[in-house]
Design brief:
Length: 257
Amino acid sequence: MLFLSDLDGTLMDSNGTITEEDVNSIHHWTQKHSFGFVTGRDHAFCMELASKYQLSCECMITDNGANAYYKDKNVYSSLIDLNDGIQMCKEILEYKVDLFYTDELGNRYYPIACYGKDRLNIFEKKQPSLGQFSNVDILEYLNTRNLGLAKLSMYVEDDLDLLLNQFKDLFKNYEVMATSKDYIEITKKGTNKWEAFCHLPIPNAIFIGDGENDLCILKNLNNTYVMNHAPESLKTFGVSVKSVAQAIDIESRKENV
């Protein structure tokens, strides 16, 4: 049986830390079963996290469903056209939000030419789990790329709902979603975690999440869990728990009945 977990707000806290209890539970689970991540984070981040905590991950759905990996092989991608992505960046910068892009190697690019290095330094301190950013400007980098983009990310401190609605109107042909209380992300139309899951060679799984971007997969899998702090609208689609460890414990008990 495969157990899939969201990362931010579910398995991982805002500092990128996983509790010892959760780590031990996952290690115990993977002695007999499989485990994986389903997240808005990029693949490089997920690989580093798995290595740090010595977690065995059979599959990873990353970038809010823009990429899916099974046994370290990319089995699905849904990418924004590169030229469209560059144009979107230019339009987003007019709103003065903290826009960034993360490439396949985990390098992050910020609009340094537009906002300046000082603002980047402030942003890095506000979001330490993202790590350090490249000194190359985001548009300068994108103009050297050949591939499409998995997603564009924006950190929004204030007026998230207002900006979310504005970006949804501006980019009607793309998926525009709030992935947390202070992040908006844009992916190709039709991109989501459930669509990515459907491209894995796996018929079913257990899933735990906490955000609106998890709703698509919570609705479609039968065996699901929702973190206690999740919005009430999600709690009808899974058993409420305080941690990944608690969900794994429930599943383990089922096997022993």
